[in-house]
Amino acid sequence: MHEKIEKEAKFYVRDLKEIEQQIKDLGGVIVQPRVFESNLRFDTHNRELSASRQVLRLRQDTRARLTFKGPSDPNSEVSARLEYEVEISDLAVSRHILEALGYVVITIYEKYRTSYFIDDVEISLDEMPFGSFMEIEGADTQHIQAMASKLNLKWENRSTLSYLRIFSQVKERLGLSMRDLTFDNFSGLDIQPAHLQLSHAD
After folding, report:
1. pLDDT per residue over 5-39, tens digit each?
2. Quick count: other Cβ atoms within 10 Å of Cβ 89?
3. Closest by Cα among 145, 116, 151, 111 to 15
4. Per-residue pLDDT at 122
5. Number of Cβ within a 10 Å radius of residue 99
6. Model pLDDT, residue 75
7. CB within 8 A of 97, min separation 6: which ones?
8. What is the CA radius of gyration of the chain?
9. CA-closest candidate to residue 104, choices 41, 58, 37, 39
10. Measured distance CA(134)–CA(201) in Å, rounded
11. Which of 28, 94, 96, 177 is most deeply buried (CB count within 10 A of its CB)?
């Protein structure tokens, strides 16, 4: 189990392949080749966790993990929040435990993720159902901003929103009613920056 203050900035981008090549050119070391990731977000029936801006999640990629995140710091230039995470041996059993305690799955979200490590930051290249994103996670804002500058990203176009918050904005803009952020649900939809309320950073 680890505890940390997660600090990261998210960028909406046009071309993940081009950015990945830049990372390699800068000496980035791959820590996770492209992998499909499924996430189950839990809450109480009356959404107590969401109301207090807390996250309870089960994640499955090459391993399974249980994660808790506290509220984000509203005064931070990047997303900054307390995180507890533990690797688990069986996601299905863990789900049953959470449900027995009264938690329910309120949404499922998917992505393909590739991760690199470079200059004391971790960079995640994310293929989301509604577009391409990257996250830069580091010890502080200065490290994150420095890497964004090396990758020629527009710092002013960063986002501190979670993928589920962006998903909520897309649903509101397009009048969508689906519960889950999955590739099947977004198949055939033409998602534009205006729907995300974001601008490309590359």
Report:
1. 899 999 999 999 999 999 999 999 999 999 999 99
2. 8
3. 151
4. 97
5. 12
6. 85
7. none
8. 17
9. 41
10. 10
11. 28
Residue 130, token pair as written in the block: 């509604």
**SS3 assignment for the chain:** CEEEEEEEEEEEECCHHHHHHHHHHCCCEEEEEEEEEEEEEEECCCCHHHHCCCEEEEEECCCEEEEEECCCCCCCCCEEEEEEEEEECCHHHHHHHHHHCCCEEEEEEEEEEEEEEECCEEEEEEEECCEEEEEEECCCHHHHHHHHHHCCCCHHHCECCCHHHHHHHHHHHHCCCCCCECHHHHCCCCCCHHHHCCCCCC
Q: Residue 85 has what pLDDT?
A: 96
Residues 56-96: tens digit of each pLDDT: 999 999 999 999 999 988 888 999 999 999 999 999 999 99
pLDDT at site 3: 73
Q: What is the rounded distance in angstroms from the CA atom of residue 35 to the CA atom of residue 169?
A: 26
> Which distant-in-sequence residues (6+ apart) come within 8 Å of 104 by Cβ?
42, 43, 44, 45
Is the alpha carbon torsion for 187, 189, 194, 195 positive or negative? Answer: negative
Q: In residues, how long is the chain? A: 202
Does this model's pTM top 0.90? My answer is yes
Distance (Å, whole) CA 16 – CA 183: 18
Beta bridge partners of 114: 125
